[in-house]
Amino acid sequence: MKDPRIQKLAANLVGYSVDVQPGENVLVEMIGSERDLINAIIEEVGKKGGNVFVQLTDKTVQRAMLKNATEEMMKTWAEIDLNRMKQMDCYIGIRAGENVNDLSDVPEEKMKMYNSLYSHPVHSEQRVKHTKWVVLRYPNASMAQLANTSTEAFEDFYFDVCNLDYAKMDKAQDSLANLMNRTDKVRITGPGTDLSFSIKDIGAVKCSGQKNIPDGEVYSAPVRDSVNGTISYNAATLYNGVTFENIKFTFKDGKIVEATSNDTERLNEILNSDDGARHIGEFAIGFNPHILHPMKDILFDEKIAGSLHFTPGQAYEETDNGNRSSIHWDLVLIQRPDYGGGEIYFDDVLIRKDGIFVIPELECLNPDQLK
User: Which positions are tagged coiled coil (predicted)?
Assistant: First the structure.
């Protein structure tokens, strides 16, 4: 018997998130062993008159490929997949791997090569900029373990989050996007954090289920050289299969001049990937009412109610501050009282305190209004 929650999710992905039109080509990429959602998506694309193509990826196989990759092989791999991506109108990416650490022992130089020669041209430059795309996780025992819940409880949480009324959220986001468009100076304060920067004339973009499931953020970017001060992130994060905790950055005129964490050496290796990796490409405020605690899965963690993320690396085209990098690493700071609290000021006006919006025009984004 089909789970109606899966069919509803598939219908939302195809009809709302990427809005498939007759004759459009849709690439569905599954990383993992799940099949029910893929089959449901194929059915929904068919109903819309689209053409569906499927890529099945196994992380253990990918790990073996990366460990043995040469530069020539990586360039050829990218050329093949880039050609395919150029023929796609839509992309639905589903991540359901059994072990989030599968790539943790791939040598750093191989991962840098993969990020710069494959991921950057195929995904950052082509898929992100030239297709209607959405990326999501899929619930399994591994994700439940990260969230410290039973598999059944995690599935219930997952479908609550992913089948949220995103059209309602989209309307509620207008007020924050409009305010960010009018804002010059941003200041963020909290334990170990006092950071200031400008977002003047950068713009703001609503995220309400069209690009990510789950969703719930509005993003912009700092003027590239305007960032000064210190930020202490309090959500653990995975990067290329390695867990980082207690990341702290100090900025001077837009550049990360000091970076520490539980693995300071490896952190700085990543930040030394290129010049843009030490500058910020995104600033975003998260407010999904169902997501409260980090689980080392950025698609969930960056949407946590009462959070923000401040991202080293590549800027998005829609809020382009000119920063270019082979990385885009969303790092999360949660400002609810149970995580130490904190404040966000726009042009010296307090707009959010301890994770709750405190000015009338933004109260529609507080958890009790979005559920």
Answer: none
Chain mean position to CA 299: 5
153/211 same-domain check: no
CA 30, 237, 253, 354 dihedral sign is positive
> Which of these three, 135, 161, 187, is where a domain ends?
161
Question: What is the distance between the alpha carbons of residues 48 and 333, in angstroms, rounded to a whole number?
Answer: 40
If asked whether residues 148 and 184 sit together in one domain, one would say no
Same domain as 41, residue 99: yes
Range of the domain at 284: 164-367
CA atoms within 13 A on the CB side of 39: 6
For every one of its 371 residues, what pLDDT tens digit does the chain have, with 9 covering 90 and above? 678 999 999 999 999 999 999 999 999 999 988 899 999 999 999 999 999 999 999 888 989 999 999 999 999 999 999 999 999 999 999 987 666 667 778 888 898 899 999 999 999 999 999 999 999 988 877 778 877 889 888 888 888 888 888 888 999 999 999 999 999 999 999 999 999 999 999 999 999 988 888 999 999 999 999 999 999 999 999 998 889 999 999 999 999 999 999 999 999 999 999 999 999 999 999 999 999 999 888 889 999 999 999 999 999 989 999 999 989 999 999 999 999 999 999 999 999 999 999 999 999 999 999 98
| Model confidence, pTM | 0.78
The answer on 182 and 147 residing in a single domain is no
Tally the domains of the chain: 2
Q: Is 190 left (phi over 0), alpha (psi -120 to 50) or beta?
A: left
